[in-house]
Design a protein that fits this description.
With 418 residues, this protein is mainly α. The chain has helices spanning 2-20, 27-38, 43-59, 61-93, 97-114, 117-128, 134-162, 166-181, 208-240, 245-277, 281-301, 305-337, 343-371, 374-417. The longest helix is centred in the last third of the chain and has 44 residues, at 374-417. The protein starts with a helix and ends with a helix.
Length: 418
């Protein structure tokens, strides 16, 4: 009875805690400004920060997965939150480029551990007898995050103008509060730490369908993150060709705010229709991703100013609107397909795929920009989104066959029992 009471409390608290810690709130809205104004870093130094920290995270990923298996989900999530708090302190108070670099590396490592909170939620819901509510609870967390980032987007610029360090102080405060609360959150299932009878190492063998999901996730997120970053820059450059800096910042701020609203609305709508569309989600989301880049590209080549920026802004908003739903769908489907002893590794691989896809797309974008304009980066990502549609169709067919096979097995068992 006490266990059930705890689990119900866990399910209530989780989405709000997850929403408040899905990134370093306040910092994410002013990161480039903070690096350049408060820390005096150049564009090259900022790019190098991201590249080095991503490479470090990729290189040590397998070692970190071994640590997760040894300490379990509960301790991994607490460690991840503690590392996020540490990274925010290093970035804020670091008085040299090296300390800021260390902070950024710690930030990337933190997510390898903190992503186990999804596994923790799934396991606790299974114990509670509500395994199918994973998507529902996760979606509430995404809605909370979207709402908070909308508030942050509206307030961070104002706070930064008062004091460049003020948003960072708020960021540290949120991280500290969340770090304390996470010590009251735990995975009470038997799958918190996987131990075999002979205490031998569990050798994980993913099915072909899991590898297709990982490939799809890598390409999708690579396209989303690079499309979001470069799409925003492209709109900024086009605005600066027509307007002065004050109008550029105002119009860009409006576009970013609308994109945050679209992200929130998308999460709410997706949460309501998810259980109805299920495996069709990937087909819908990949098609939307493709259309996003089509809108941006067409808008770029249209001469009529108002229509140009409307189309480019719509495309940018669509990119943000598909970001959370694909994360929800991929986490949900992969946790349903893998065995209990594979959950930790599956989620780690999913995040590895995301980081790898983003890194590869970032390197390709950098190579393109050495010779061509930004629009060619968007065209390249648009081609990548077509490949993602093809993979999405393949995955949908594989999942359909897999579901039919499960139904047939269940029917056969019923016949044998009778």
């Amino acid at each position: 009875m006490e266990q059930e009471k705890y689990l119900k409390k866990f399910v209530k608290i989780y989405p709000y805690l997850k929403g408040a810690t899905d990134d370093l709130l306040f910092f994410i809205a002013i990161d480039s400004l903070f690096y350049t104004v408060a820390k005096g870093l150049s564009a090259q130094q900022i790019v190098f920060l991201t590249t080095m920290s991503s490479m470090f995270s990729l290189f040590f990923r397998m070692t970190l997965i071994k640590v997760i298996k040894k300490i379990g989900n509960t301790k991994s999530v607490r460690l991840g939150m503690g590392l996020l708090l540490t990274s925010s302190l290093f970035i804020t108070f670091g008085n040299s480029y090296l300390w800021i670099m260390i902070g950024k590396i710690i930030y990337e490592i933190a997510w390898v551990f903190k992503d186990m909170e999804g596994v923790m939620l799934k396991n606790n819901l299974i114990v509670l007898g509500k395994a199918d509510e994973y998507a529902k609870v996760s979606n509430i967390g995404m809605n909370v995050y979207s709402f908070l980032t909308l508030i942050v987007a509206l307030s961070s610029g104002f706070l930064f103008n008062i004091n460049p360090y003020l948003p960072m102080y708020l960021c540290i405060t949120i991280c500290l509060g969340a770090f304390i609360i996470y010590f009251y959150m735990k995975d009470i299932s038997n799958d918190n730490i996987i131990i075999t009878e002979n205490k031998k190492k569990v050798k994980v063998k993913f099915s072909k369908i899991i590898w297709i999901i990982l490939l799809s996730y890598a390409i999708f997120f690579g396209a989303v993150i690079e499309g979001q970053y470069n799409g925003k820059l492209l709109i900024q450059y086009e605005l600066s060709n027509i307007y002065d800096i004050s109008k550029v910042s105002m119009y860009l701020g409006i576009i970013v705010t609308i994109s945050r609203i679209s992200r929130l609305l998308s999460n709410i709508i997706f949460g309501k229709v998810y259980y109805k569309i299920k495996d069709k989600s990937l087909l819908i989301l990949t098609t939307m991703l493709f259309l996003a880049f089509v809108f941006i590209i067409i808008g770029y080549f249209i001469k009529f100013t108002i229509l140009r920026f409307i189309l480019m802004s719509v495309g940018f908003c669509i990119i943000l609107s598909v970001r959370d739903p694909i994360k929800l769908y991929s986490n949900d489907i992969i946790l349903k397909l893998v065995k209990p002893e594979e959950k930790q590794e599956a989620i780690s691989y999913l995040q590895f795929a995301k980081k790898l896809g983003t890194t590869v797309c970032s390197l390709l974008a950098s190579v393109i920009l050495l010779k061509w304009q930004m629009i060619y980066v968007m065209i390249g990502i648009c081609i990548l989104s077509i490949i993602e549609i093809i993979i999405g169709i393949k995955l949908y067919l594989m999942l359909s066959i897999n579901n039919k096979a499960k139904i047939n097995k269940a029917e056969e068992k019923e016949v044998i029992i009778r």
